[in-house]
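Field log, afternoon session.

UNIT: design team B
ACTIVITY: writing a sequence onto a fixed backbone
BACKBONE:
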């Protein structure tokens, strides 16, 4: 299936997004180019069942070139966190949701062996094989309700290289039988490398800021 113009319900959603952004940040709004780009991407996702610039270009009959789609994503001055939370507000309003449970979790995603341009990629332990792979770690926050469950925030986690090196040295000293009192202490936390727990707290603070009227019945998390 192909398209030349967005469907009416997508246009309506973009209009509501723009209105919500204006209400949350009176000095900001969606430009004409941003509105068209978002409409085109939503239509592309709907018809191709994927998030792929090349697929969007094909189903959109060249209405947007692949390079232009990618450029808008990387360089457009969209307020992404605000865009996400205004979208969430519209979903909650649409389904009449006033309460729910927040669930925090993390996930490791394997990437190529060489990822010079992928954000926060690092060496990860593979629980299945016992080896290691190159990838990304993301901390998620989900809202679970009787009607719908949806992701409401995420952060990329990057381990502190100083702490990582300390752990390696700590393990070697343990194997050598060096007493704890004689081993170097754990380095102090570096704000530039927040822990997974701190990232989850940041997500909770952000959610509270944008959705103060939602009743949170419980907050769940695993080993975070």
């Amino acid at each position: 299936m192909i398209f030349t113009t967005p469907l009416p319900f997508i246009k309506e959603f973009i209009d509501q997004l723009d209105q919500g952004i204006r209400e949350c940040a009176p000095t900001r709004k969606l430009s004409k180019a941003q509105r068209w780009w978002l409409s085109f991407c939503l239509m592309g996702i709907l018809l191709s069942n994927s998030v792929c610039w090349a697929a969007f270009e094909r189903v959109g009959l060249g209405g947007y070139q692949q390079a232009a789609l990618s450029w808008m994503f990387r360089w457009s001055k969209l307020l992404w966190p605000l865009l996400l939370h205004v979208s969430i507000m519209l979903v909650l309003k649409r389904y009449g949701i006033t309460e729910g449970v927040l669930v925090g979790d993390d996930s490791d995603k394997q990437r190529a062996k060489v990822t010079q341009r992928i954000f926060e990629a690092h060496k990860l332990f593979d629980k299945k094989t016992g080896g290691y792979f190159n990838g990304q770690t993301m901390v998620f926050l989900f809202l679970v309700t009787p009607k719908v469950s949806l992701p409401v925030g995420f952060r990329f986690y990057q381990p502190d290289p100083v702490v990582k090196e300390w752990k390696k040295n700590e393990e070697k000293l343990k194997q050598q039988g060096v007493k704890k009192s004689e081993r170097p202490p754990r380095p102090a936390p570096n704000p530039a490398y927040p822990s997974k727990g701190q990232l989850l707290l940041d997500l909770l603070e952000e959610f509270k800021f944008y959705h103060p009227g939602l009743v949170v019945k419980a907050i769940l998390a695993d080993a975070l």
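LOG NOTE: The chain has seven helices and five strands.
NEXT ACTIVITY: expression trials, pending approval
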